[in-house]
Sequence to fold (893 residues):
Amino acid sequence: MESLIAVLVGVLFATGTYCLMRRSIVKLVIGVVLISQGANLLVFTTGGLLAGRPALVPADGVAPPAPFGDPLPQAMVLTAIVIGFGLTAFLLALVTRAHEAVGDDDINAFNNTDT
Amino acid sequence: MPTILILSLAIIFLTACLAPTLVRYLGDRAGWLLAFAPFSAFIMLVAQAGMIEAGEALVYQVDWFSALDTSFSLRLDGLSLLMALLVTGIGGFIVIYAGGYMHGHPQLGRFYLYLLAFMGAMLGLVVSDNLILVFVFWELTSISSYLLIGFNHEQKETRWKALQALLVTGLGAMAMLAGFILIGTVTGSYSLAEITRMGDLLQGCPWFTAIVILILGGAFTKSAQVPFHFWLPNAMAGPTPVSAYLHSATMVKAGIYLMARLNPSFAGSGLWEYTLAIFGSLTLLLAMFLGLFQKDVKSILAYTTLGVLGVLTMLLGIGSEYAIKAMVVFLIGHALYKATLFMVVGAIDHETGTRDVTLLRGLRKLMPISALAGGLAALSMSGLPPFFGFIGKELIYKAGVKLNGAELIFLVVALVGNLIMMGLALKAGVGPFFGKPNHAALPKKPHEAPLAMWLGPIVLSVAGLVIGIIPFWVTEFMVAPALAAIRGAEIAHLDLALWNLVRPNLPLLLSGVTVLGGFFVFLNRARFWAVADRVLATIRPYGAEAMYGRIFNATIWFSKAQTRWLQTGRLHDYVFLIVMTTVGFLTWAIVSFGGLNFSVDWAAYDLLIICLVIIMIIAALVAVTGRSYITVLVALGVVGFGVALIFAYYGAPDLAITQLLVETLTVVLFMFVVLRLPPLKTISGRFTRLRDGIMATAFGGLITILLLKAVNIQFDHAISDQLAAMSYPEAKGKNVVNVILVDFRALDTMGEIVVVTVAALGIAALVKSGLKGKGKRS
Fold:
């Protein structure tokens, strides 16, 4: 079940890494967004994929009926999604502000800004 | 009473801490008070001599890192007692002496702190039983001696020399530590007492050669054997009390001590014995040769110390009973006379303002007590009866004449070495006091040194005379137990009485030759000075020190070059390097874990998922290549909502909901700032883009392979199953993922909230500062 998703994860990492190596500062944000999507899917997939079996306890039961999707990676990914959002938001603000302050969008122009 | 071991250590370290305060209130009289610490330790240790002589050992042990088989264990046997007495006994006089020598120095308190800390480290070293503890104290002596040698750190040259001593001995210690760990692995013990009983096991193991070389790396650097000899004369940059203490009596003997300590394990192997004997002889010969050309009294003494270290190593290598006996006696004798000579030289320097032997003459009338002490010490060093030095020298020859065949070369080496050493002893200890005075040529008008500065020399030099005449107590309670510890045998009774040695035999004849030759060297000393500068300048470029300088500079050059190469200051290069390294290691990991052996299952998919993944891949590529913000944002949105759909499809409704929310917010945020962002454009050239593209594709491909391999491994679901089973009964929650987040791993969620809060604060600050900046500009 996982092979297709694995290819998708690879593509997300490749495109994200490529963006991180660009000099335009906005591409950095795009790269971070793509890589965090890839990383979330990676962790999610390592737990094993099961279609339509969430880890929910039925109304009259005490435990989810087996088999069910592994809840532990899901919990971790949930945390990661939220933190990834925080990071993206902060990065976006930082890039906007830096662009205003330096007046350039080439990351190599940011080397000599200590005054 | 084993607690006296820890007590004597504690008293010295505590006094070290108190020293700066005491000096602040008492000035340089504080030395008299501080000397109580080493002297009281000395007395406590002397009280144990009877027990040690009876063949027992004092053991003090508390657990330290029991998991690593490392305990804080101290052990006092014959060899440890001998070294500990030298460290504390001579140390006490040095402490007093330093008060006079450093009279009025503004940093005297700091000096005493370093000196006493060194003393404690040295004492700890010689009484440690655990190898790791030995290493800790060994390094403490290196560090404290670095501080002492570099005490006059205003001068660049002093700093260079101090660093040299630290680097040489410190790197040697690293080798030694590796050797210790090998010993521990082979024997299964880090206790010296146990290791010295396991010589056969060690000598039989395949790592024996490596162990010997690594251990000698530590011992030879610390005890300044060829080719690591050069740091010792350079260490004379330290104040004279430091030279007297570290470079005569104690630190340089740490290497000798270690070799002697491990001798029972290694003795009998040709590797050990010949290495020591050969390097010892080379050190002796080189030191004597270089010593001949020195004009600075302190340098002369430094080279004779180097020579003595060579003799001691050589004797240990010869390893016969006579040789070890000679070594122990020589070690004691040397500590007494060399400390004295250094202190006398310090007094001369202090009172006349120079250490140049060509200027110093006829001081005996003006400095009678120093002259007496220096003369007695020089005679002991020359090996004349009835001084203790004579016994040592006789024993060396006795050990030498027992050799046969090619090994007789060591006897010749000893003879030549002793002969020159006597010449140098007279040059340094007698020369300055006799002859026609020329006080006018001296920088200062000389007079006798103060009490603090002649007390130590006179006591130690008279001690060398007294124990030469009546050696019984020293041989019975110090030499014999130490001999037993070094040879790993029962304590034998020695007869070293003077009248037994003065017999017409070959050793005595050799002594006679030594005396005549020594006087000859002394009388012709001016001839060597005449050519000194030329000789030294000729050999300097080929010496070990020049090699050290080249290695040092090469290291700095390499360090600078690799910094220039790696730290370019461009983000692209850092990311590229990180990705490249990761790709390399990942490839290696995948290959070493069986390569591409995973199964793929292309068939079992819904059409829905297949279409979704294809759309997402296209969207990701568009997000990278898109030229307008609208295109890129839509593409990013497609990727994000696609991920949400995958979550939903594979049984993770919570993730899907969160992802949808977050994705919406992200797009909104982007839209919010999009007008303030610079236009999307391509800056890098075609080649760079191609190279980055290949690297990124390789990285992505490896991640895919990694994931394919990972899902083929059967994970242990024990934790997940346990959490799912506990979810309802324990936490009364039916959604297991939610229960994990808010109950079982609530602290993680708390951390997550903190992260988001901090990010929000950061954003607020950034936006606010942006507004302020705008306001100012307009």
Summary: Helices of chain A lie at 3-20, 25-46, 71-102. Chain A has a mean pLDDT of 87. The CA atoms of residues 98 and 104 of chain A lie 8 Å apart. The two ends of chain A are 55 Å apart (CA to CA).
